[in-house]
Design brief:
The protein contains nine helices and no strands. It is an all-alpha fold.
Length: 190
């Protein structure tokens, strides 16, 4: 049997990293960040505790990786043509994709909001998240400015806050009318 190639090793590394992140996400979202130990994450991921540190420097690093990866997924459809300008169609695509992600990845959003509500945990990645979200807020403000809104910065904050509120309500209320809400968002903001 010949040794593995670099590509094979990298693929194995990516698979293990994903396993760890999925195990941690489930535990962080449903048990909590502080009560979850590295040992529990390793056990859930089917690896040794020591091997965890080959993939993540610490539990904080693991949390930060999960939050950033989820944020990156959310932004895939935002300015989808990457031209630095949001069109109406791109806003509709973003709203639609965002609301779909809430439905398909509730654990991520549970984690996100629980982390945002814990000052000690939020402080861990506040600056990092602020840096990666800056382009999102800038483009959104430009969109509302080009739409002739009187106060585009306030519109941006309102839009963002509204998405947060929709997400929280969807997660914690059964039968939340997300389709109807999607249509209202498009009518009022897009």
């Amino acid at each position: 049997m010949s040794p593995r190639t670099e590509n094979q090793n990298e693929l194995i590394r990516q698979v293990k990293r994903k396993q760890i992140m999925e195990a941690a996400l489930d535990l962080f979202a449903n048990v909590g960040y502080h009560p979850t130990s590295i040992s529990e994450i390793a056990k859930r991921a089917g690896i040794s505790k020591g091997l965890m540190y080959n993939y993540f420097d610490s539990k904080v690093d693991l949390l930060l990786s999960i939050v950033i990866e989820g944020y990156d997924r959310m932004n895939i459809s935002f300015d989808s043509d990457r031209d630095g300008v949001l069109s109406r169609d791109e806003m509709i695509l973003f709203v639609t994709d965002f609301l779909e992600q809430i439905k398909t990845d509730p654990n991520y959003w549970k984690l996100y909001f629980s982390v945002m509500g814990q000052p000690t945990v939020n402080s861990i990645f506040h600056n990092e998240l602020k840096n990666i979200s800056a382009p999102f807020f800038e483009l959104l403000t430009q969109y509302f400015e080009s739409a002739g809104k009187r106060n585009p910065e306030a519109e941006t904050l309102l839009f963002h806050s509204m998405l947060d509120g929709i997400c929280i309500n969807y997660l914690y209320h059964t039968n939340y009318p997300i389709k109807e809400v999607r249509q209202l968002i498009i009518e009022k903001f897009v």
